[in-house]
Amino acid sequence: MNDEKNISSGMSEVVKTVCNIVEGFIFVFGCYIVLYGQLSPGGGFAGGVILAAVFILIMLAFGKERVLKIMPRKRGAFIEALGALSFLAVAWAGLYVSGIFFKNFIPTTAASHFKLMSGGTILIYNIAIALKVMAGLFLVFFVLSITRVILEGDKLKMVKKQ
Amino acid sequence: MTEAMIFFLMGLMILGSIIALESKDLLSSVIAIGAVGFMLSVIFLLLRAPDIAIVQVVIEILTLIILIRVTISRDIHIIGDTREFLPFALNMVLLVIFFIIAAEAIRNMPAFGTGVSKVAFPYLSRGLNDTGSANIVTSVILDYRAYDTLGEATVLFTALIGAITILRREAKK
Known about the structure:
The structure holds two protein chains of two kinds.
Chain A (H helix, E strand, L loop, with lengths): L2 H6 L4 H23 L8 H19 L1 H7 L2 H26 L23 H25 E6 L2 E6 L2
Antiparallel strand pairs in A: 1-2
Helix pairs in contact in A: 2-3, 3-4, 3-6, 5-6
Chain B lengths: L1 H21 L3 H21 L3 H24 L11 H23 L12 H12 L4 H9 L1 H21 L7
Helix pairs in contact in B: 1-2, 2-3, 5-6, 6-7
């Protein structure tokens, strides 16, 4: 069929339909892995990679225009910096509240064990790491896939891929 | 039983690495590397480390996607085979020396599955009451050893900034 159009705007109709169905489920699963990091295997890093995989899936299936509508580069950089800074901010808050850097200053009681709001600051750390990893890995994939290194004479040169 | 299965999977991993090194086609090399990574995650699962197994699976999928996309879009598929004798012989000598030292070190290691690390027991017995986190791995990396996680996050942040800066679209004036 129309190969030129397909290459510039992602993959075939089948892939796009399946991607439309599964992307929400993968996103929710990533959020679950992040939020339940203190109760079940997983955590901020693994959940963040799954969340980044959602954006990479959308980019591979639909092309970069649609993913840039959801997550422009400026917004990605903002989210990554926000994650890193909020991780540090919670650590500083421990220093401010109780005098110890990285102190878990939210009190935990035995009644809250095995519930979602257990673990004090661990939940906030997990969310911060997930935001950072999600935006960072997506941005790296994005810049890797739009740049192409070519050999010009005897010098390597980076050009934007068409 | 678990030990035998781990040894079997490790043998398959060594086989996959050799295939990845010796294969003439770049794409089949990448696929062999992916198989090695997935077998590593199965080994983590057998060693009862589900946290690290999840991380290994998702990172393996992501790097496999990136590597396949990179190798497919390039025109270089065939790797030239120009192996000189001297580096090859040097490699073999170093491999033998490493094997002798590693065999000596492994002979003096504690038996499989016996814990000798004293620091692990307080974490296991007090972790839930200290931090309120039911997952001991999370309580260690985000509470007891949060400085390590801060360093790791800094390394990741710096690496991502470096990659984005080098590969950005606009050239610096």
